[in-house]
Amino acid sequence: MKRLTTAKLIIISAVFIVLFNNLAFFRNVIEVYPVSWGNIGFLASLAVALAGVIILLLTLVSSRYTFKPILILILFISSLSSYFMNNYNAVIDHTMIENIFSTNMKEAVDLFSFKLVLYVFFLGFLPALWIYRVKVKHGTVKAEFISRLKLVAITLAVIFFSVLIFSKFYTSFLREHKPLRYRTNPTYSLYSMGKYLGNKFKDRHIELKRIGEDAKIPATDTDRELIILVIGEAARVDRFSFNGYPRETNLLLKTDDVISLRNVQSCGKSTENLLDVLSHANKVNILWRENNSDSKDVALRVQYEDYKNPDKNPICDEECRDKGMLEGLQDYIDSQP
After folding, report:
1. What integer pLDDT is reported at residue 211 of this predicted model?
2. What is the mean pLDDT of the chain?
3. Is 248 part of any domain?
4. Which residue, 239, 249, 333, 240, is CA-closest to 287?
């Protein structure tokens, strides 16, 4: 097998990642800048610029002994990111990475699929195997330094002129369509990992701001009311049959008087806390029953019951079922004023 210089291996790897692991990025870009004679040059320059950024990133880790292991790791990260971005339209930001690390084994196994294996095999394992086997031609320390310097200089020049030639497009791309950059792979996921680790290791002592302490139920409101809020995993609005999905996914729900809110957007992907405000109001009893990984700190200051194990949940086979959270609930309701 012919020996490759580090620079050539970096360029080949960057081009591979852009062509095969950034389909979600370019699919979203094309929705804003459709393929046409007026846009084709910008789209091509965007691919070149992204490859340039990845080349610069790989050059930073291209020391003699760390280059291959880190490059192989990046390929596996890219293949995983590509799978979730292509199939779930996910953005791998620092919040998503925090969710990954707080996911338990059962939830992780639920995400396993044959398609995921194919992504990792073809986009991660096979190119990683090739990189492992390829012979790299290393020069002297001085020669390698000069080679890296040339690669960085040429790459920066290519990126600069790519942006300069299509500056009008890049102005709108950077100012008006910022979320598109969140889908670059693996650059944004690696940036998000750094942000997550930075937040993890810095001083996380944050003073909670108490709000809604004046929340009250009017004295004239004497009715005894029960509200049950069921918070499930993320579900796509276009996968509910009563929203028009052709497959029957709501066989039981469609027999009830269900209101489906179809045009709703969240200002954030993380759960916002209502419970603390409710707890300030008089005559409000709050019970949080949990059959997921945890409440993500939402239920830290209210009554909490864990139904993830058979000690508490009477309906468990290969996993503990949500239905088990109904056990004893009526008795609790009856005991509250």
Report:
1. 79
2. 87
3. no
4. 333
Identify the pLDDT of residue 270.
57
Rounded to the nearest 10 degrees, how much is the dihedral formed by the CA atoms of 190, 77, 63, 162?
Answer: -60
Q: What is the dihedral of CA 204, 205, 211, 217, to 10 degrees?
A: 100
- 85-104 pLDDT, tens per residue? 998 888 898 888 887 877 76
0.85 cut: is pTM over it? no
Question: In the numeric block, which tokens belong to residue 333?
Answer: 């309701």
Q: Mind listing the pLDDT tens digit for each residue in 293-333?
A: 777 778 888 999 999 889 999 999 888 999 999 999 999 99
Per-residue pLDDT reduced to its tens digit, 211-223: 788 888 888 888 8
Residues 128, 130: Cα–Cα separation, whole Å: 5
**pLDDT at residue 244, rounded to an integer:** 86
* 3-state DSSP assignment of residue 85: helix
Q: Please provide the DSSP assignment of 273-335 as one string.
A: P-HHHHHHSTT---EEEE-SS--TTTTTTSEEEE-SSTTT-S-BSSSB-GGGGGTTHHHHHHT
Report yes or no: 76 and 70 within 8 Å, Cβ to Cβ. Answer: no
Residue 86, in any domain of the structure = yes
Distance between CA atoms of residues 237 and 266, nearest Å:
13
Residue 84: which residues within 8 A CB-CB, separation 6 or more?
90, 92
The tally of domains found in the chain comes to 1
Tell me if 178 sits within 8 A of 26, measured CB to CB. Answer: no
Residue 60 is assigned to a structural domain of this protein: yes
Phi, psi of 287 (to 5 degrees): -130, 125
Q: For the segment 63-77, what is each residue's pLDDT rounded down to a tens digit?
A: 778 889 999 999 999
**Are 164 and 157 in contact, with CB atoms under 8 Å apart?**
no
CA 93, 77, 22, 162 dihedral sign is: positive
Q: Write the CA distances from 296 to 86, 95, 193, 269, 288, integer angstroms.
A: 26, 11, 19, 12, 12
CA dist 9 and 192 (Å) reads: 25
Which structural domain, as residue segments, surrounds residue 116?
Answer: 4-201
Evaluate whether residue 73 is within a structural domain: yes
